[in-house]
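User: Here's a chain of 321 residues. Predict its fold as tokens.
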Amino acid sequence: MEALGGFSPLVEPLSLDEAFLDMTGSIRLFGDPSAIGQRIKAAVRECTGGLTASVGISATRYVAKVASGFRKPDGLTIVPLAEMRAWLAPLPVSSLWGAGPKTTERLRALGFDAIGQVASAAPATLERTLGALGRRFHSLANGVDPREVVGARRAHSVGSERTLNVDVVARADIEAHLRLAADAVAQRLRRSQRRARGVRVKLKTTDFRLLTRQALLSEATDVAAVLLARATTLLDEISDGGPFRLVGLAAYDLDAVSRATPQLDLLPEAGDRERRLETAIDALVGRFGTGVVQRAGDLARDRGVGVAANLDFLHDRENED
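Assistant: Prediction complete.
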């Protein structure tokens, strides 16, 4: 669930190992539906040490759930809105949500073997024979499911982790990845109108040891420069020299921003300048897309230190690791 929380603030657990995510408006953040599905699968594999996940993506909860079981194990099935009814049609009536063994037997006795037959039946006829369940089956068979994803948990932290193609040792390389993470975290804080009172740094060594350090700020902030400044001082508290394959930064102890509250910072004047710059970049990204503005240093920084996976996440726990 923590891995899934990195993709949406609306995560509704359905069982121990199954959940709905509302990914509305996520294409700019994570790519098209196929890219989103692959990133979710990769995130689950990473956080569980290699377990596979099957993902179904569609415009309704019901169709997404059916799609998630379509190509198990390790499947990814995408059903576009315009194709939902046709995609459901040949599936057995046992795939209708709520159709247990006895109800499935009744449907077959009534001549309904495939979902498409239920979709084409008169709703009144289904309701006469099956009650309210019959009308519900008719809606589901036509791809209609008005229920929304309900996220029951409030996030207490926002973070960004980078799994690297090439392990890093040099402090400059670690700080460069922390800066990218701080930019992503601060942007998400501003977008959700929240500020953080704490910063956490996370490093993972090549032998999979997790090292974390965290500290509170003097004032809540949504400025990347302030988050980064505190994060780099936390590196001084980590004696392990690496090499490291993951670098992450999280902001925690979040407060909602009051429009009447002025922005405060470790260095008010400098912090204010940085925030004006960062919000100007937010506006450019919002208008032209991610990557429209980059630091010159980041363009030439790679030198073989690539990024295999970048995971922005939300956590509902105050403390971790």
